[in-house]
Amino acid sequence: MELPKGNAGVSGDEQEPSSSRRGNKKYHRHTSEQIQRLEELFKECAHPDDNQRQQLSRELGLEPRQIKFWFQNKRTQTKAQNERADNTVLRVNNERIQCENFAFREALKNVICPTCGGPPFGEEERQLCLQKLQLENAQLREEHDKVASLLSKYIGKPISHIDSLASAAGSSFDFSSGSSMNQGMGSPPLSLNPTNPAVANNAALAYQLKEIPEMEKTHMADTAASAIEELLKSFEIKEPLWIKSPGDGRYLLNRDSYDKIFPRPNHFKSSSARVESSKDSGVVSISAEHLVDIFLDSSKWEDLFPTIITNAKTIQVLESGMVGNQSGRLQLMYEQMHILSPLVLSRDFYFLRHCQQIEIGTWVIVDVSYDFPKETSACQTRSWRLPSGCMIKDMHNGCSKVTWIEHVEVDDKTQTHRLYRDLICSNVAYGAERWIVTLQRMCERFDYSMDEVAPSCEFGGVITTPQGRRSTMKLSHRMVKNFCGMLSMAGKLDFPQLSEVHNSGVRVSVRKNTEPGQPNGMVVSVATSLWLPLPSQNVFNFFRDEETRLQWDVLCNGNPVHEVTRISTGTHPGNCISIIRPFIPTENNMVMLQESYIDSLGALVIYAPVDIPALNIAVCGEDSSKIPILPSGFVISGDGHPETGPAASNGRSGGSLLTVAFQILVSSPTSSKQLNMESVATVNTLISSTVQKIKAALNCSGLD
């Protein structure tokens, strides 16, 4: 018997037993064509059935048994090859992991504490830290139980109910910095945050800077020059850069055209960021030169827009500009803006303000955000101002025409309460129209304050001199600034109620007041916002009406009030300052100072109790800056929806948004925690009952 040399042509080591002698094997060589055909079929089907083997048998001239054995051997051979390949990969991975494991063990021998640079804690130190944390936790739990018991006493709810509110809000109670409670069925939850205004102000205004390097100043000047060039082009180019909205007639920026003319990357990278842009113009009763001086003085700038700007500072004057016309002046500034409600986020800007006189009687003032100071966390805001500002053109009659462009990039949609989300995202809340409307109203108010002649019947014989009127108007202006500054309630905690369609949670802050012009002691501020299915004008008329005041004002004690005198601050009859005497048997020496206004974007009614002897100081024309005043009031605005039409997706059609805010001075004993809790319970009851009375009087009780 001749043995084959090698296995070329053998059918995958296929063997067939000899029929003549047991144990003898006959080897069969397949041709290359047969092997090629078998390989092709194996790729398609590794397990051929009887029919396929019969077909191959006829096609290749082989026995079905031979084909069966070939496929069996081929499958075994393929499996072995795959296992060898897998073993090789596993061996490589195993060696790599062993090396990494060895490196980790060596690194653990030399590990250090990232905080102090010392050796890591051993088991003994770890146990001591654990015991310390457990002890602190037990102390906090004991404090929690004490304060929860106090809350339970004053709101009439068991402790378990209070704990369930905290759990539902996803936060535990922390009475060192804040708390929350809920009063009555359907009443909004309460959040408490005692804050020190001076500390909060310093944290927000980290603008104490060293000398700015010359290279940095040069970069600032280049940034301001580019911004004013872009702003001038934005004023000159109309369509297609600016598009007039068919719905409300406001001018909005065409983003595609803008990106082609002024290409730049987005400042915020998140998907929730958006760009707000708007343009508006109007005539104001003030000279252009005077208005430019006000804009470049941060204190006057803040006073001019008390309902928009809550804080403004000039950090450093980089270029003083030309004497007489301020052209070329460049300064680094900070401002904080806030409007309408605690539910609306404030906006903070570090920005450059640059002034240029482009021709006689015409100035352009541009604002553009700047990343400075980089070492402070205060500049990490959710707002970034793109080149914005105004063109001021003198009309040579004591008036000026102001064209305003507001262009910002913001990332606050997810942080804004749903009640105000549509309004804030509609380019109206912080848009150019609000600046123009506020500027016109404040200039009108200034004109009325400077009027030397006024009807004697307007004052009711109480205010007899122009000096007395101006002093009273200054006191009222300070009252408005105090109210709007309080409204942001920085650092507040929020525990939203389950249904937020028409109402928001009550928000409370407690502060120790030491500022001049305000009563000293602990002040509790509380605010809530709600939606009403009524136009803003109707809601404003309700709060201005003396006959309906007794329906909501607890100071009226159910009796009508009497308006002692009135000072007009504008052509609209609702724009005025009033001195109101409520019926309070135990307070014969107290009156209410109230200021109200209404414009195309909303309305405001602010009032504060004032002692008659203190008010006489202002009425007589003396300095009113030291008269203590603690205002409360109402802010009314549209809701961002059309007046008519189908209901919006959140179930509301056109209506108004009302913010109710109170401030109450409470005496402060040495231990103020219990006093704070008692005061919080009182103001929560006060604002909740006031809101219910307002809804009932306006036939809106079904909105709970």
From TrEMBL:
One GO term describing the cellular component: nucleus
GO molecular function, one term: DNA binding
Domain Homeobox: 21-81
Region (Disordered): 1-33
Keyword Transcription regulation: yes
Transmembrane segments: none
Principal subcellular localisation of the protein: nucleus
Any coiled-coil regions, as ranges: none
PROSITE patterns documented for this protein: HOMEOBOX_1 (PS00027), HOMEOBOX_2 (PS50071), START (PS50848)
DNA-binding region: 23-82
Protein name in the entry: PREDICTED: homeobox-leucine zipper
